[in-house]
Amino acid sequence: MATTIFLVRHAEHELLGRVLCGRMPGVSLGEAGRQQALRLGGRLQREGLAALYTSPLARTRETAAVIGQQCGFAADIATEFEEIDFGRWTGASFDRLNPDPAWQSWNAERASGRPPGGESMAEAQARAVAGVRRIEALHPEASVAIVSHADVIKSVLAWCLGLSMDFHARFEIGPASVSAMAMWGTGAKVLWMNEAVTS
């Protein structure tokens, strides 16, 4: 028997696709995001969750709060699943970042790169994998949801699949999507990725 981990990306906010928000404060869901969160709650309610965890940032906590209301319990904060620390890039627009050679290098070499003054993808992956291992041990043979961020979710899935983080751009983790993996002892497998919840 295995623990099923649902990896949920937070719902949309109004800066999505325009600004590298990272850990900047005050990034909250817009109306579209709130509707997405409601649909996520309905989807996950059918899974018989035993627990719900969330990154400490506002957009994940707001998404998790809506899911938790429909599932009947509150989310616990799990700092292992916080967004990557993008250092000096935090809050920059993608229009400004895209021509920057350092940004281009980071996106081409995620396995070894590091944002200026920030956290490497390897460091983010190490803490996130430690987090799913901790949660699997706490909830053996149960179903658990974790609300986090695209790159953090990608890092966990890449670990499970044995992929280098240099391949991060080869699969998508969209806003308000659900991916799933099973974990048991030293084993793990991906069940599905990037399910868009539309109803």
UniProtKB/TrEMBL annotation:
InterPro entries for the chain: His_Pase_superF_clade-1 (IPR013078), His_PPase_superfam (IPR029033), PGM_Phosphatase (IPR050275)
Gene Ontology MF term list: phosphatase activity
Domain of life: Bacteria
One Pfam family in the UniProt entry: His_Phos_1
Regions that span the bilayer: none
Annotated organism of origin: Belnapia rosea
GO cellular component: cytoplasm
Protein name: Probable phosphoglycerate mutase
High-level lineage: Bacteria, Pseudomonadati, Pseudomonadota, Alphaproteobacteria, Acetobacterales
Family annotation (PANTHER family): ADENOSYLCOBALAMIN_ALPHA-RIBAZOLE PHOSPHATASE (PTHR48100:SF59), BROAD-SPECIFICITY PHOSPHATASE YOR283W-RELATED (PTHR48100)
